[in-house]
Amino acid sequence: MNRFHVAALCGLLFSSPALAQRYLGQDEETFSWSRRLPSGGSVTIRNFNGAINITSSSGSEVQIRAEKKVRGERASVSDIAFDVDESSDGVMFCTVWRGESMCDDRHDMHDVRGSVVLTVSIPRDARLKASTGNGELTVESAGSEVEVSTGNGRVHIGPTQGRVRASTGNGDVEVESAKGPVKVSTGNGHVYVVTSAGPVTASTGNGDIDVRMQTLKTEDDMSFSSGSGAIRLTLPAEFNGEIDAGTGNGSLQSDFPIQLRGRMDPQHFRGTIGNGGRLIKMRSGNGRLEILKG
Questions:
Q1: How many CB atoms lie under 10 A from the CB of residue 247?
Q2: In the prediction, which pLDDT does 27 show?
Q3: Which pLDDT does position 191 carry in this prediction?
Q4: Among residues 49, 20, 164, 175, which one has the least CA distance to residue 118?
Q5: From CA 115, how far away is CA 126, in angstroms rounded?
Q6: Which of 18, 23, 97, 120 has the fewest Cβ atoms nearer than 10 Å?
Q7: Contact 100, 118 (CB under 8 A)
């Protein structure tokens, strides 16, 4: 991998053992960057603070537009820079605050008085990883595989072609029209997932969960948990599997006939649907549990 430092402000080129390409902070409030991505390549975005909006491109280029924002007299847009790490099969783009880069797993971010709003366009067959310390994260019809996270903010993912992983410390998570396995979590917020090909795993510290699967392509177990909220699970009409469901204070309802095992408990039951098979666990501290037939 060839990497080098570029001082975009003064136009100087110099080598570095860190082997990264850095575009130093300037007085301009916006920054743009692009490159061609090989078919099936990876795109990694790491932002210290600010929203990330990702869409699909019509060609093979990755295009990134960054809008810098600062607050207070002690901060300047020149405090914000960008690291770009290019390899033969992908690219990593990271925001930098006063020399501390999100590309460095050992970064020490402190007294952060700025944010960057990133608008990213990627090829539809790209593999995507995106994260931000604080801010909303949106992916619209982009990425063959998607893995995103934010410390605080809503996550919305539109149609995707493959596996999806999404998490937020606080905020709703929505995954619509996925075509592969989905795993999502939020510390506080509602979860809504629609996929044509499960399995799905979902959890929230506080909020409702609504998951709808048209088909199940593997025999993997699945789990759904909410600290306080309803869980609604829609399964294929031909579903076979084992159910282990419990709620601290709520009711249980199933469209499928369930052959119960053990003593009947209004708040907890175990049983078999059809011929049995994969295990589904459903847990809510305080909420209604529903198993619906698709």
A1: 21
A2: 86
A3: 98
A4: 49
A5: 26
A6: 18
A7: no
Backbone angles phi and psi of 101, in degrees to 5: -100, 140
The pair phi, psi for residue 79, each rounded to 5°, is -70, -15
Compute the distance between CA of residue 69 and CA of residue 216 in angstroms, rounded to an integer: 44
The domain ranges of the chain are: 154-294
Residue 288, class by beta-carbon neighbours within 10 Å (0-12 exposed, 13-18 middle, 19+ buried)?
middle
pLDDT tens digits for range 29-54: 999 999 999 999 999 999 999 999 99
12 falls in which pLDDT band (50, 70, 90)?
very low
Q: Which two tokens stand for residue 7?
A: 């001082």
Copy the structure tokens of residue 110: 């402190």
Residue type, 205: G
37: tokens are: 């991505």
| DSSP secondary structure letters along 164-226 | EEEEESSS-EEEEEE-S-EEEEESSS-EEEEESSB-EEEEESSS-EEEEES-B-S---EEEEE
- Amino acid 134 reads N
Confirm if 130 and 137 have CB atoms less than 8 A apart: yes
CA–centroid distance for 142 within its chain: 12
Instruction: Give the integer Cα–Cα distance in Å for 230 and 35.
Output: 45
Residue type, 267: Q
For residue 26, the SS3 value is coil
What does the pLDDT look like over 273-283, one tens digit per residue?
999 999 999 99
